[in-house]
Amino acid sequence: MNKKEKERWEQIRAKGKLRYILVHGIIGWGVSTAIIYTLVGLIMDKGIGMENISLQKSLIDLAIALVVFPTVGVLQSIFTWNKKEQEYLKE
């Protein structure tokens, strides 16, 4: 970890692990990926055009994605936090 990375990590670290998980894991990766996944699924399944969209299926797909992807985001951000902490403390 170079000096610039260390300073950046100190700023992130000062805000706390819970905030890191929320911002980076749940919102930053989980929710955004769920929305993109749902939109790509709509286009791949039905093509582009409002007449082809099933609102009920789309909402179900989005609801499932909003559970799965943020859960993975939490796990990923915990892993990343722990890895960065080890690098920071090693220095």
Top keywords for this entry?
single chain; elongated; 91 residues; mainly alpha; transmembrane helix; membrane; 0% strand; transmembrane; 3 helices; 87% helix
Description:
The protein has 91 residues and is mainly α. The protein has one domain. The protein is built from 3 helices and no strands. Helix 2 packs antiparallel against helix 3. It is elongated. It starts with a helix and ends with a helix. The mean pLDDT is 91.
Q: What distance separates the N and C termini?
A: 8 Å
Q: Which assembly state applies to the chains in this document?
A: single chain
Shape label: elongated
Count of all domains: 1
| Average pLDDT metric | 91
Global structural class: mainly alpha
| Count, helices | 3
| Sheet of most strands | none
| Integer-rounded radius of gyration | 18 Å
Tell how many strands the DSSP assignment holds.
0
Helix content, binned percent: over 70%
Question: Helix-strand pattern, N to C?
Answer: HHH
Strand content: under 5%
**Unreliable parts:** none
